[in-house]
Amino acid sequence: GEAADAQGAITRIGEAKPDVVLLDLELEQGSGTEVLEALTGTGEKPEFVVVTNHVEEPMRQRCFQLGATHFF
Hints:
The chain has 72 residues and is α/β, with parallel strands linked by helices. 39% of the residues lie in helices and 19% in strands. It contains 3 helices and 3 strands; from the N terminus they run αβαβαβ. The two termini are 21 Å apart.
């Protein structure tokens, strides 16, 4: 599946229960960090591979804190 915004991604991930999600931090509405935050502690957390142009170390660390497994 795919989604253009944070809420759509959260909904689709909940429905599809994928093993892996390729997640961009830049979405049409919302952000990839919103998706990570929404799924923290839900037990429905797939492996998140984050792709972004935001290569700053604080953003990388934030994504890992929220449960991302890879950051590119």
